[in-house]
Amino acid sequence: MYHPTTRVLTVLELLQSHRQMSGPKLAERLEVDVRSVRRYILMLQELGIPIEGERGRYGNYRLRRGFKMPPLMFTEEEALALTLGLLTAKRVGIAMTTPSVEGALAKIERVLPEVVREQVQAVQETLVLNISSSQLTRSAPGSSVVLTFSMATQQEKRVWMRYRASQANETERAVDPYGLIFQAGLWYTIGYCHLRQDVRIFRLDRVLHVEPREESFTRPPGFDALDYLRRSIATMPDTWKVEVLLEIPMEEAERQIPPTMAMLEQSPNGVIMSTYTQSLDWMAHFLVSLRCPLVVREPDELHGALRAVAAEIVQLAERGESPERL
Fold first, then answer.
1. How many Å apart are CA 202 and CA 188, to the nearest integer?
2. Cα–Cα 20 to 30 A to 53, which of 37, 75, 243, 300?
3. Whose CA is closest to 187, among 167, 205, 200, 170?
4. d(Cα 237, Cα 220) in Å, to the nearest integer?
5. Torsion angles phi and psi, residue 7, rounded to 5
6. pLDDT by residue (tens digit) across 161-207?
7. Which among 257, 323, 249 is positioned nearest to 287, based on CA atoms?
8. If DSSP codes are grouped into helix, strand and coil, which group holds residue 313?
């Protein structure tokens, strides 16, 4: 839990790292209300920190031009959060290169007090991240590609790219990126493609080259990139919509099923798992691996896939028995 002093210092750090930030944005980052942000700003001003604010409900706060504070030290909790974040990013492939993670960790360690540094090093040397293979990056794009699309999405700027689709044909196209998503081990961007004159989904690992452009665009109001991606996957050819009732507690379901793989919903009789798959055989094997009672709601074809897995298991079990024991 945050201590109030920590929140006040965090406001100062955010204002130093950004040219300006609005009250609602600061409140969102700190997980407090706007009134609390105003109180933190007032406390900093009373300490002599020259923070200037614009009037109005959505006014911005900024440090007076030319004012710089020396870097603030990390607390134990902040150092641990940074370390865990970097180690997890490296494990699941969100970090594009190992040197980038190691370099960041080294810089963090260099500015930490000795006691905190020893604690962080202990975490690095002893922590084992048991992350399922479905959460690992299957094909990571270059860091420059991710950064270019991130900046273009934030600033609503068009990009030009050379792209290789799954059929291996290369195209050149201008795209207005609406969102960036990391899901099920893959990076995606969703945006308006000027070549196809429609909204399209692109895998970033298939982007051969990308360049920012000066042309601006306006993202459609309320556009939900993740929802668009999920609905698009659902309508892909040969894709099955799967809904299964798992008769286990929600905590157990969340432990065994990655959030990138399926949506989980609590129900009176257990947990409803909703997802999409291109292979009912694979889904049947996965459900068996959960080792819990379940009820298939859809599709009916999944029952047949489960029976096939059951027959396969029986056949394997019988192969290990001697004639005398039969």
1. 6
2. 75
3. 205
4. 27
5. -65, -40
6. 999 986 668 899 999 999 998 876 678 999 999 999 999 999 898 99
7. 257
8. helix
Give the pLDDT score at 220.
Answer: 93
Q: Which amino acid is at 227?
A: D
Q: Extract the tokens encoding 73.
A: 């030290």
Distance CA 276, CA 283 (A): 9
Name the CA dihedral angle for 221, 211, 135, 248, rounded to a multiple of 10 degrees.
Answer: 10
Q: Answer for the pair 108, 74: CB distance below 8 angstroms, yes or no.
A: yes
Q: What is the mean pLDDT of residues 45-60?
A: 78
- Is pLDDT larger for residue 233 or for residue 322? 233
**Residue 265 bridge partners (DSSP):** 272
Structure confidence at residue 18 (pLDDT): 75
The mean predicted confidence, pLDDT, of the chain is 82
Please give the domain boundaries of the chain with CATH numbers for all domains: 4-63 (1.10.10.10), 76-134 (no CATH), 143-223 (2.30.30), 240-316 (3.30.70.240)
Give the Cα separation of 228 and 234 in Å (integer).
10
Tell which residue, 204, 175, 177, has the closest CA to residue 93. 204
Residues 14/26, Cβ–Cβ less than 8 Å: yes
Please name the residues in contact with 280: beta carbons below 8 A apart, sequence gap of 6 or more.
Answer: 240, 299, 301, 302, 304, 305
pLDDT beyond 70 at 99:
no
Tokens of 214: 């000066």
323, HSE (Cβ side, Cα atoms, 13 Å)? 0
Question: Which secondary-structure segment (H or E) carries 198?
Answer: strand 198-203
More confident residue, 296 or 315: 296
Cα separation, 131 vs 94, in Å, equals 13
- pLDDT number for residue 161: 96
Tokens of 296: 């298939």
- Is-cis flag, bond preceding 249, omega within 30? no
